[in-house]
Design goal:
The protein has 126 residues and is mostly helical. The chain has a domain at 60-119. The protein contains four helices and no strands. It has helices at 12-34, 37-57, 62-96, 102-113. The model has no long low-confidence stretch (mean pLDDT 80).
């Protein structure tokens, strides 16, 4: 079964719109050129303002930047907490390394390995 043939598209209205847009763009460029060097400055300032406005409105613009700054502050807080924990662990390592601090070694053996002295009684609550 042969496929139906598509209807031809009338491109005349589209060509007219493209031509009109081209003329409008040409007129705008001629207007900028007629104002001399300051025309280009004004045109550049206008483009910069449009881009700045778009960045404020766009979800990828200032709102995203604020969200990323908040996330950065949160991550910095987590990093500070981990740095403090690292300092505590380093102090513990220093206490357990040569020369050995006997009190720190005994505390670690009791906490981590469950060691008790022979004359002690252990009560476990669950």
């Amino acid at each position: 079964m042969p496929l139906p043939r598509p209807k031809p598209i009338d491109l005349a209205p589209l060509k007219a719109q493209v031509a009109a847009a081209g003329e409008t763009a040409q007129k705008a460029a001629d207007k900028v050129r007629s104002q001399g060097p300051m025309g280009f400055v004004y045109a550049a300032a206008t483009v910069a303002l449009v881009i700045a406005g778009a960045s404020v409105i766009d979800a990828q613009g200032l709102r995203r930047m604020k969200m990323l700054e908040a996330e950065c502050r949160k991550q910095q807080l987590a990093n500070d907490q981990l740095a403090a924990q690292n300092l505590q662990l380093k102090a513990r390592i220093d206490a357990l390394s040569e020369p050995v601090n006997k009190a720190a070694l005994e505390r670690a053996a009791r906490e981590q390995l469950g060691f008790v002295k022979p004359d002690e009684v252990v009560f476990k609550f669950e």
